[in-house]
Amino acid sequence: MTFKKRQYLIIWIFFIVYALTFLPHFGVMNSLNWIGPFPLPLAWVLFLNVINTFIIFLIYKKYFVPFSRRMEKAELKGEE
Hints:
Layout: H1 3-20, E1 34-35, E2 38-39, H2 40-79
Antiparallel strand pairs: 1-2
């Protein structure tokens, strides 16, 4: 898989998982079942938010850190 395709895939997975967090608002996964100490809708949203948090860290390390370094180098060259 090429780098660009992997980028698109990661971003699309993030948005799909983010959209799934709204399912309890529409009555899906919105029952009074309990999973451990949490009701089902809260457990569902927390689980998906954990997945999104890992994806955000991955995106930050792969794309924004190198971009920030390039911008710092460009600023240093501009000051010289």
